[in-house]
Amino acid sequence: MDTQHYQQVLEARRNELDRRLHKIEADLDQPGNPDDDDRAIERNNDEVLEGLGEAGQKELASIEAALARIEAGTFGACAKCGEPISEARLAAVPHAALCCTCMKEQ
């Protein structure tokens, strides 16, 4: 398995997520609009941004864990059963810690 390729993919995604999360944080730090109608819209938008931020944080944690598995030499092995994770699954979800079988069971 070409772990160097996955490391590059994961690091690129980590950098992209980091930029997005900083942008979300900056958007959420903007002062609110004094107009009641606009403030209600902003609150809805902030809820969406917060959801995106939480999802991004979870993915970022998964990426960091995958990079740690590369460093430890365990990348590509299922964290539950120890069997190899298929190349197709890693191509779709490079930070996957579980094989398809274990993921379905979870």
TrEMBL record:
The protein's name in its UniProt record: RNA polymerase-binding protein DksA
Signal peptide: none
Coiled-coil boundaries: none
Residues of the DnaK suppressor protein-like N-terminal domain: 6-70
One Pfam entry name: zf-dskA_traR
Domain Zinc finger DksA/TraR C4-type, residue spans: 73-102
Zinc finger (dksA C4-type): 78-102
GO molecular function: zinc ion binding
Entry-linked InterPro entries: DksA-like_N, DnaK_N, Znf_DskA_TraR
This protein's UniProt keywords: Metal-binding, Zinc, Zinc-finger
Gene3D superfamilies referenced in this protein's UniProt entry, alphabetically: DksA, coiled-coil domain
